[in-house]
Amino acid sequence: MTSPGENLRINGDRLWESLMEMAKIGPGVAGGNNRQTLTDADKEGRALFARWCDEAGLTLGVDQMGTMFARREGEDPSLDPVYVGSHLDTQPTGGKYDGVLGVLGGLELVRTLNDLGIKTRRPIVVTNWTNEEGTRFAPAMLASGVFAGMHEQDWAYDRTDAEGKRFGDELERIGWKGEEAVGARKIHAMFELHIEQGPILEAEGKDIGVVTHGQGLWWLEVTLTGKDAHTGSTPMTMRVNAGLGMARVTEAVHRIAMAHQPDAVGAVGQANVYPNSRNVIPGKAVFTIDIRSPDLGKLTSMRSEIEAEAARIAEELGLGVKIEPVGHFDPVTFDPGCVSAVRQAAERLGYSHRDIVSGAGHDACWINRVAPTAMIMCPCVDGLSHNEAEEISKEWATAGADVLFHAVVETAGIVE
Question: Which of the ends of the chain has fewer CB neighbours closer than 10 A, N or C?
Fold first, then answer.
């Protein structure tokens, strides 16, 4: 059993052609994709991936959350496989590479092994996790969360979209509810290739991000309650303005995140005021605070300070306040052995690289709780993602898939 030689590379042209072919399914309105989970477009994308897996000689399994597992047999089928993959679902205005690169990079890895006639000791499984984005059915990383025991399957089935449609019903409707029990699979290790979704690698001219940690996160939904009143006839001193409270809390979130630098971020993303009329002082504001850090102490401190500041602001303005956590995961430390395999692969191949912390959540963050896991990142133009203008180069995609190939194959072992 040996490591792959530095001359072994994936077929970058074939990978790029596959990315472009998948991008034809669920096209967006501005050059990207709208292939939301469990839609007809998702069904079509799954069918194409399944066909490609069959052509590559893989055996497809599907679990009860609809996650697809395409297995290339190893020399010793009794050994736990090395898993690789990401997700094919997109945001409503998503790009062509977020998630998709990780799935099709895994497929290209297998195609390259087939081309070269290389047999690995352990099986390799290419995975498409269901509903990573969480844009249609919250929360994000839903299927991998059930797999890792973070969510109950029945609870996941009961998630509804904006039209009230249930996750479980839609999964059955598109025909991708499998029979396999979720979480029953044994994983020797998992590797996920992903675009950075941030500007660091491109700005520093690095080919590869070796992901050592993932940020922890709190989503806090804040409801401020004041009194609707006429904007023209209500004296300034007699207003109970929920919109003003939201503005002050928004500023406080920014200030508190800045006070916890480095490695801390925070912002208000989703925000609504009611009755949302031009000439009515908002009597109610509902908004979501997103705070993240790879340092659990900082994350905990930011939450505590924000909640205290929101209460103070509400009291000063005479507002009612309710704060409800609606999303959370602790910071992630990826497996040192898997991280080392990624770093050594980049060095062996001569790609420039740096250690990096993932600013976004990924399926690997949940799987890391049940198996050794690591991530590989490639740059994206201007750090832009969750946007139809998301872009990468063929060279960046190829470099990331090369490193993925070497890290996975070394972990799975080459049979001489």
Answer: C
Beta-bridged to residue 256, according to DSSP, are none
Rounded Cα gap, residues 35 and 45, in angstroms: 8
pTM: 0.89
Binding residue ranges = 87, 98, 133, 194, 386
Distances (CA, A) of 193 to 90, 105, 114, 407: 16, 7, 20, 11
Tallying the residues shown for the chain, one arrives at: 416
Per-residue pLDDT tens for 329-361? 899 999 999 999 999 999 999 999 999 999 889
> Pick from 18, 44, 187, 27: which is nearest to 105 by CA?
18
- Tokens 């507002």 found at: 319
**Binding region for Zn(2+):** 87, 98, 133, 194, 386
The confidence score (pLDDT) of residue 214 equals 94
Under 8 Å between Cβ of 92 and 73:
no
**180 forms bridges with which residues in the sheet?**
63
- Is 286 exposed, middle or buried, given 0-12, 13-18 or 19+ CB atoms closer than 10 A? middle
How many beta carbons lie within 10 A of that of residue 333, not counting itself? 12
